[in-house]
Amino acid sequence: MKEIKSYELREKYLKFFESKGHKIIPSASLIPENDPSVLFTTAGMHPLVPYLLGQKHPQGKRLCDVQKCVRTGDIDEVGDATHCTFFEMLGNWSLGDYFRKESINFSFEFLTKVLEIPVEKIAVTVFAGDEDCARDEEAADTWAGLGIPRDRIFYLPKANNWWYAGATGPCGSDTEIFIDTGKPACSEHCDPSCDCGKWVEIWNNVFMEFNRNAEGKFEKLKQKNVDTGMGLERTICMLNGFKSVYETDLFTGAIAKISELAGKKYGEEEDSTRAMRIIADHIRTATFLLGDENGIVPSNVDQGYVLRRLIRRSVRFARQLGIEGGSLVEIAKLYVEQYKEVYPELGINSAKIFEELEKEIEKFSKTLEDGIKQLDKVIQYLKGDTVNGKTAFRLYDTYGFPIEMTMEICKEKGLSVDLEGYKLAQEEHIKKSQQGAEQKFKGGLADSSKMTTYLHTATHLLLACLKKVLHDDNIQQKGSNITPERLRFDFNFPRPLTEEEKQAVEDAVNDAIKRDIPVVCTEMTIEEARAKNAVGVFGSRYGEIVKVYQIGDVDLQICGGPHAEHTGQLGHFKIEKEQSSSAGIRRIRATLSDLV
Ligand code: SER
Prior knowledge:
Blueprint: H1 6-19, E1 23-24, H2 49-52, E2 62-70, E3 86-95, H3 100-114, E4 122-127, H4 137-146, E5 153-156, H5 158-161, E6 162-164, E7 169-180, E8 199-212, E9 218-231, H6 232-239, H7 252-262, H8 270-291, H9 302-320, H10 328-339, H11 344-348, H12 350-380, E10 386-387, H13 389-399, H14 403-412, E11 416-417, H15 419-433, H16 437-440, H17 450-469, E12 477-482, E13 487-492, H18 499-514, E14 519-525, H19 526-531, E15 545-551, E16 555-558, E17 572-582, E18 585-593
Parallel strand pairs: 1-2, 4-5, 10-11
Antiparallel strand pairs: 2-3, 3-9, 4-7, 6-7, 7-8, 8-9, 12-13, 13-18, 14-15, 15-16, 17-18
Helix pairs in contact: 3-4, 7-8, 7-10, 8-9, 8-10, 8-12, 9-12, 10-12, 12-13, 13-15, 17-18
The structure holds serine.
Serine binds at residues 43-45, 91, 163, 204, 206, 227-229.
């Protein structure tokens, strides 16, 4: 049988739903905009939430797309046959248009007529019913009417057949479609909810008619929606009868390269096959995150931390295979070539992808060696079978050795790590140093003492004065770190500041302090803030309503605060040092004295 490739499935899916009156919409970014509740776009419905809740979509009531998604909740499962941290989701939506019957009819027609999957291979699950929503006989009858035998229609509870976008938001019962891989059932009770490998879920049709409110209650939505999601990787795998997604054309290039670099055959030995799959998966996800239209870079917080973890994990598994970390960039290059036609942003951002990847790999390779040595020592002298939390934190703090890696290595050796103790040590550290980066801008500084609060206001004045004195409106904040002793502020500028310029900036800040301007905070929508030309720093963190701090005619910035009440409180501002931070980025350290 001829192999079915990924591009064919994308094309067939979109064409089919287009023929059923759906408009094709582009994939949204992997980094959700204006939604601080999730780190990544995890499903096709995610960018469509406002429309599922009732807003009018400019393209109409029937939509379809192929959405890039990242889910890292199952990261430990990656390496098996079906789990990936990045995947593409084929989806079609009815926004208050068709519902259960039509949706199931579309799915059945696409699977059996377009993809020519034999009906005998299909099994489905439907919602068993409870106090919130009736047993879904309509879905079951529709499937049965189409020829799915009753003994292949399984009724399952909320835990299996209910889809939530998050703790609150649009949700509803679903019907899930599975392919029978032909493996014998593991027991007489084996059904599609079993993970023995007999059944693989390829498509989920959610009947979104509820909104779960903050009290956890289900309220009927204004409109009945359908939200479906089909995993591209899994479906191609199933259509071709492959053993795993890594045999599909999406991965064959990367796996061949990894196997060549390792000098080992893929599929021959369990551990090295798993390592190859993990590298192929993680580097693909890293490539997409770095190359995204809202691309991120490795860091110690939020999305950046996930990215860092993926890259570092790849390096670790590469070492296990005898592959030098730096060669992983070769794999990213393959992915960019492979995907850039479908996702042009990868081609546009390719230089950044390779540079950042290389930088992170290099950084980590250096620390890895030290960290592993230290952990080996810890294990050698360990009494009992648990590494204590303080030690695990020291490995992270001193050697940059991620806790997940400590846990993984320990697990391989049959040891455990005191995670609670680790968290306590981490909290203790944050309290002590008051620099907990992850705390810094979560609606306020980790340390809200008078000094740090005023230094924060000083960074606003500093940014405004840099722009004014250097006559450059393109200057932006590229990083900020505040301790009770000083502020540290990074901004883009191509050259060192002259002595005169430094003095002029300092004077301008002190001038604004002397004018004792009130610092006024207003809440408004993100659109209003943009319309007022407010400076925005951390785009992806904003919610719909933002706080905007205005310092008279000097500065207007979206910011979580807190700030001084009036600039006169800041006393006297002094630039202590101006130096390079990285290419094109300057760094200023400054202090305040004589606080009022
Ligand atoms: N939102 C559902 C899912 O992710 C269907 O798209 O499975």
